Amino acid sequence: ALNWILALGTLTTWITIAVFFRYSSLAALVSALFAAFFVLILFNAAHPFVWAVALVAVLLVWRHRSNIRNLLAGKERKLGARTET
Questions:
Q1: How far is CA 77 from the centre of its chain?
Q2: Rounded to an integer, what distance in angstroms lies between the CA atom of residue 69 and that of residue 42?
Q3: Which long-range contacts (CB under 8 A, 24 or more apart) does 55-61 make?
Q4: Most buried residue among 19, 20, 36, 40 by CB atoms closer than 10 A?
Q5: Quick one: pLDDT at residue 77?
Q6: How many angstroms separate the CA atoms of 33 and 75, rounded?
Q7: Residue range 14-30: average pLDDT?
């Protein structure tokens, strides 16, 4: 919502990772980190968007701690995978 080009780049990153790896949490993590990189490309390092996007990226990584553990352990559920009953 800060910038449509930033949003488009982040969305494209999420879709690309989700299609190739089929992990929503991995796509979210990679997209958040790339959003911080994209903001540096679009604006200079002193722009307030840099700190805002970096803070959101750090918070997202922190909130996805359990997903990161599951990804590393190979236990994260893939997109479209059926749930076990």
A1: 17
A2: 32
A3: 56/32, 57/32, 57/33, 60/28, 60/29, 60/32, 61/29, 61/32, 61/33
A4: 36
A5: 84
A6: 22
A7: 94
